[in-house]
Design brief:
Layout lengths: L7 H8 L3 H7 L15 H16 L5 E4 L5 H5 L4 E5 L2 H9 L5 E5 L14 E4 L12 H16 L6 E8 L9 H7 L8 H8 L3 E8 L1 H17 L1 H8 L1 H19 L3 E10 L7
Length: about 280
């Protein structure tokens, strides 16, 4: 597995805390990313999954880069491959025994598909691709180039969701978040994303759902606090306190416009989507 420029250990430190811990405060789909709109958390997460699947438009074969606990894979409706760096997440997806679904503990840089996909989804993984001090644009361009080649001129698209810096200089980012929550990860800015995509993939839709993420994080924080005692029994009081603080700070950052939540649809230039 490739490790250069990829915070594999940091990702596992965060996501392998324990499936039972996350199940206490996430919705039943175990979606650990921004929901879409309002209603109950369950309704908003189902809406998010459906909209990304619709944007990707896979008709025969789907790739999910950063598949988490399998929410997209379980609803793909076509043969699908999921990539994760978390052993715990991969074990959970395999235990679901989903038909025509393969999950791999594999970095996207190491992925070698046996045939093209006609839809790609990546939700909440892009922000982990680059470490501080790396050439973020080059890394993102590499990812976009691979996605273009994997799509192979199909009608499908890459449906991307990522946190990004908004009204905040990266130097102002919380040391607590950078050291205790997502070490060795650096968020993108919108200009870095668009520069990396230029000439590789065409951006056909772009929106900022930061207020949806402020609401989502507040929902998670409320649910975790309500299950604080069983959570402490699973992972200890220090971990629970760290997550409560992280979720509260995140909600504040999105609400104040310091952080953005970009939802982007990208397609290969000259693809048949508009015909």
């Amino acid at each position: 597995m490739t490790t250069a420029g990829t915070p594999v250990a940091a990702i596992r430190r965060h996501y392998d805390v324990g499936n039972d811990f996350y199940a206490l405060w996430l919705d039943p789909t175990l979606s650990y990313s921004c929901a879409w709109g309002r209603g109950t958390l369950e309704e908003a997460q189902e809406r998010k999954l459906a909209r990304h699947l619709a944007a990707a438009g896979a008709r025969t074969r789907l790739l999910d880069v950063g598949c988490g606990w399998g929410g997209i894979l379980a609803r793909a409706g076509v043969p699908a491959v999921g990539l994760t760096l978390s052993d715990a997440q991969a074990a959970h997806v395999r235990a679901l025994c989903l038909d025509d679904v393969e999950v791999r503990v594999e970095d996207w840089r190491d992925h070698r598909p046996t045939r093209p996909y006609d839809g790609i989804v990546s939700i909440g993984a892009f922000e982990h691709f680059a470490a501080p001090g790396t050439d973020k644009v080059a890394i993102y361009r590499d990812f976009f180039t691979r996605c273009r080649d994997w799509l192979d001129g199909s009608r499908g698209a890459l449906s991307l969701q990522t946190i990004g810096y908004a009204d905040m200089d990266p130097a102002e980012a919380s040391r607590f978040m950078q050291q205790e929550i997502f070490p060795d990860a650096e968020l993108p800015t919108l200009p870095e994303i668009t520069t990396a995509a230029d000439g590789v993939l065409e951006i056909t839709a772009l929106s900022n759902g930061r207020l949806d993420y402020a609401w989502t994080c507040a929902q998670w924080a409320r649910r975790l606090k309500a299950r604080r005692e069983p959570a402490r029994e699973l992972v200890g009081p220090e971990v629970v306190a760290r997550y409560e603080r992280y979720l509260t700070l995140s909600s504040f950052g999105f609400r104040m416009g310091k952080l953005a939540l970009y939802r982007i649809t990208l397609r290969p230039y000259g693809s048949r989507w508009g015909r």
